Predict the structure.
Amino acid sequence: MIEYAKVILPKVSFSRELFEKELRKCISWVEKDQRSELGKWCYEQFGALFPDILSRYFKNVAA
């Protein structure tokens, strides 16, 4: 499911609300042991755009 997130999230990054909605869905679909990997990827891709949203969903992932 991480690969799906890597396709969807860039497509919705034009909208804060849509990005957060899709991020929530992606997190719920990803296995718990893969959430850290998803978080690191999200920070690399969207850390400058949505740091507040990412910190809300990935509290334990280093930016």
Observations:
- Residues 16-29 form the longest helix (14 residues).
- The mean pLDDT is 92.
- Residues 2-57 form one domain.
